[in-house]
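Practice problem: Oxidoreductase
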Amino acid sequence: MSKLKVAVIGCGSISKHRHLPEYHQNNDVEIIALCDIVASRAEAMQEVYGGNVYTDYKELLAKEPVDLVSVCLPNALHAPVSIAALNSGANVLCEKPMATTKKEAEAMIEAAESNGKHLMIAHNQRFVRSHQQAKALIEQGAIGKVYSFRTTFGHGGPEGWSVDGKDSWFFKKDEAIIGAMGDLGVHKADLIRYILGEEFTHVSAMVETNAKENITVDDNAVCLLKSESGIIGTLTASWAYKVNESNSTIIYGEKGVLRLEDDPAYSLIATYTDGSKVNYELGKIQSNEEGKQTSTGVVDHFVEAVKTNTTPLIDGKEGKKSLEIILAAMASSETGKTIQL
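Answer key — structure tokens:
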């Protein structure tokens, strides 16, 4: 079988550290095109991975016979560029959050369906082994009825990670639309939906900009969520965790508690009401810290879905449900009301 041809649009940090290395390691694909409005960024990636360089994604889509496109751009561009790529006949892997409005997300789903192409959103948390194990334990009834949870994603902010540092698009309302909630919160919304296996019905939140100066987006948020079966819990997203990154989730159930990515030695600790305890060593979660770049599993899953023509784990509909929780949180914070989904 001939290799699937890949184009990566946007050559910033997420491309450099995640998408391009993971495509490069996959034997079923070939990187044929790179695009960035800053030509030197695409050229730097070309030196490593080859492919033709473009500064205009429309030109790339018109000229290159691509099968797969990764959209690694500021949030405001996710929908228009993904739709253009789907309409050109490519399958699309889009970074999170998939869009900045429900209407945009629906237009992306429609573009995928009408063109018979796959759309996947790059929510990597579903591929973390501790998260998959926790989901399995809950499904098996290991902790009985689930009552509550707390899930958090926080670090010092994207300036240490983004290619533009303090001048990053992440901090600009017109490009990012949503700040820490779009960067980190949406990952946790997707994760908690996945682990619990149910949807959320109510969202209440306080979303603030209180940690960074000269930014026009949120950087600190605490949300209350209620699921369809009545599970209540908190979701926090922050660019204000200055010392240690936190990417932990704790699930409280009738027969036990699951602690995920909350202990330095064990990625999952299950403690049961009968006094027993199980420590799982399942490998480390993804981190943005130098030297901890391991494969997310996202690209391999996307390639496999396209190759076998199967629906990816996080398709457009799944991405939209996770986005809607974040949009509801923003609306709740603005109105002071609980938003019903």
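Discussion: Residues 305 and 320 are 19 Å apart (CA to CA). Students who identified this feature from the tokens alone can consider the problem solved.
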